[in-house]
C-alpha cells in the first residue's frame, strides 16, 4: 500500500514538474556561407515559464553575446497562446573568416536551461589582387534535357541541316565546352518550385518550396493567407534572411547587378536574386524591395538593370493591393534609371559609352508574350491564340540581354546578371508545345548574345566572364518522334490527359491480332525520319513544314529530375559531374574570388587533342 502511494506521489510530481525551455536555431542543417555574407540568426525559445528569459550565444566555445548587435525580441510568435515564447533575431550577422563554426544558443528561464547547436560552413571569398570577373547566369525555366533537345531539333533542322542523325550546327548552349548535371530538390520536397531553386543558386542554401531567400520561423502560421495588401503579410516578411550573391557582390565588391526575364520581373526566378519573403506571391512587396533595398543587406535599388513584365507591380499600386500608392517606376527614374516600355524604345537606346547607366524595362503587365506570338506566328489549333493585352511592341529576350550587357558593362565595372527564359515552364504547364519550343530557341539566342560579347569584348576575350546555362527544375515533356501534319487528325502534341497509343500489339497465336484498331503503337500521322523546318522571321524557324517534331507530356507540373548545366569562361571546368544546385553558388564564388589560370590552361590543352570533328 505504501509503495503504491509513493509511486503515485512520484508520478504526480513528475507530471507537475516544469519542463525546461525548447530552443531552436532557425537555420538549415547544412547552412553554408561566404566570408562576409550576411544572414539573420534567429533563436526561438518556446514552452517557457515566462517571457522573462535570457539568451546566450556561444560560437566555437566563446560567448559572444555581449558583442552581438541588439537583437529584435518578439513574444507570442507561435500559434500556442497558452505557453509563453520569445524569439531573438540578430539581423545581418556574418563571419569574417573561413572555417566551420559551431553555434550554440542557450536559453535560461525559471524552469531551467536548454540549448541547441548548429554547424555553419564558411567559404573564403577574397578578390584582393585579382582582376574582377563578370558572371552571367542563364536560367531556362524547366529546361531539362528534352527541352534543350527540342529547341535544337527545331531550330537546327532548317534548310535540311539535320541529316542522317548529324547536325551542321548546334545551339549556342550546346557549344559551351563543359557540361554537368544539377540536383534540384527542395528542403521539403523532392519536386521543387522556382522560388526554392532560385534561392539555392543565389544564396547557396535550400529552403522550402514557394519561399525566397528566407527560412521558416514560428510566426509562419500567422502569415497564412497573406496578400500584398493584408496586415498579416508582416509575418511573411519577417523571416530570417540570407544575402544573395547579387546583393553580396554589389555591397562588398562594387559589382553592377541585373535581372532580365520574359516573366514578371517579380516572379520567383528573377526575385531569387533580390527578394526576401516566405511567399513568392507577394509580388508588389518584392517590387518594393527591389527599389528600397533590404535593410542590412542593400541600401537603395537592388539592381542596375531590371527588364521583363510585371509593370503593374510598379505602376498600379493602391493601399488595398500594396499598402502604398507609390509609382516605383517613377521612383527609379528619380534615382537615375532610364525607363522604357516598348521594343522600339529599347532598341533605340545607344550602346557603348552612351548606353544608360541604369535601365528599367517593363514591357507589359504580368508575363511577357512568348516568342511564337511575338513573331506573329499562328498558334497550332490546340494552343490559345496570342493575347497581347494591348502591349503589342514587346522585345525579344536576346534584345533585352544585349541592352542589359551594354548597360552593366558600361564604365568597366564588373557585373553579375541573371537572364531567364521563363515561358519554357509557363507554356509547359498547359502542355503548349509550340510556346515551349520557340521559347527555348529565343532563350538560346539570348545565350548567343552573352557568348558573343564575352569573346568580342576587348577587355574580356572570354577570360573574365563566367557564363553558365542551366534550369531551375525540369518538367515532363518528352520527344516521341516525328509527325506528318498533312495526315488528317495528325497528333503533334500528346497531352498529359490524352490516351496514349498502344505500343505492344496483343496477339493470340490461334486467332491472330486481337486489337487491330489500336495496336500500331503510333499516334496518327507519326512517321520516321528527320524534320526540315523552313526559315522564318528574325532568324527563327517557321512552323509550316510537313514533318514536325512530336512531343508528349506526362503531367502539367514540375518533376524532380536533375537538369543539365553548361559552362564557359574562367573556371568552367568546375561545373562538370553531378552536384547539388546550391553548389552553383559556391563554385561560381570560387571562380570569382580565385585565379583560375591553371585550370583554364588545362581547358585549352584539352581542346588540342586532335579529335576529328563531324564537320571535317
Give a verbal description of the structure:
Helices cover 24% and strands 25% of the residues. Residues 1-16 and 502-520 have low confidence and may be disordered. A hairpin with a 3-residue loop joins strand 22 and strand 23. The chain is globular. It folds into 2 domains: 19-123, Immunoglobulin-like, CATH 2.60.40; 134-477 and 559-600, Alkaline Phosphatase, subunit A (3-Layer(aba) Sandwich), CATH 3.40.720. The strands form 6 sheets. A 10-stranded mixed β-sheet has the order 16-17-15-14-18-10-19-26-13-27, with helices on both faces. With 616 residues, it is of the alpha/beta class.
Short characterization:
The strands form 6 sheets. The chain has a 10-stranded mixed beta sheet with strand order 16-17-15-14-18-10-19-26-13-27, with helices on both faces. Strands 2-9-8-4-5 form a 5-stranded mixed beta sheet, with no helix packed on it. Strands 1-3-7-6 form a 4-stranded antiparallel beta sheet, with no helix packed on it. Residues 1-16 and 502-520 have low confidence and may be disordered. It starts with a helix and ends in a 10-residue tail after the last helix.
CATH superfamily name of the largest domain?
Alkaline Phosphatase, subunit A
| CATH architecture descriptor name of the largest domain | 3-Layer(aba) Sandwich
CA gyration radius, whole angstroms: 28 Å
Number of helices: 16
Q: What would the keywords be for this entry?
A:
disordered N terminus, globular, 10-stranded mixed β-sheet, 16 helices, 2 domains, 5-stranded mixed β-sheet, 616 residues, Immunoglobulin-like, alpha/beta, Alkaline Phosphatase, subunit A
